[in-house]
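Sequence in, structure out.
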Amino acid sequence: MDELHAVARAKQGDADAFAQLVQTYETSVYRLALRMCGNAHDAEEVAQEAFVAAWKGLPAFRGESKFSSWLYQLTTNAAINFLRKEKRHRAAVPLEDETELVAEGTPQQAAEAAELQQALQQALDALTPEHRQIFLLRQMRQLSYEEIGQLLGLESGTVKSRLNRAKKQLRQILLQQGNFFPSSSVIQKGEEDDHVL
């Protein structure tokens, strides 16, 4: 069953079709929730809330954006609400899976890559939930400015402006920590460059 068909059937109350959508997106939703919340237990709760919101909201889903984009928005909104409600400090969570931290090259290059990933996660933790939301939707989920704007009810220019502010703040934090490597492509100068991660 293709996704469009599964969404159409789930909108009509077909629980099996919705279960297929959950199975397709559960890993991506969990990883996004984990990056937003900072620990596995909270991420599981947020992911579950996002899927419950999706099930309840499906009848009103018009398909103006991709189902995945809509689901990621529900996930980030659930995470922001959770963080505000719980008022918890986020724990450090790797931006990428441990296997993705291994860089090709010398052991020193691999160690520098791992150090940079850790520093970047700490800097990301310092962003406001709203800036972190836009950053993750753009850089991790690779949504367009238009898609993010549509999901969050913002103009594309506002999305771009907030993303640029988030990047500048990340660079500033990394510079203050002494963890910014100018030769790295992880954070690049230039407001037009979106390849931050």
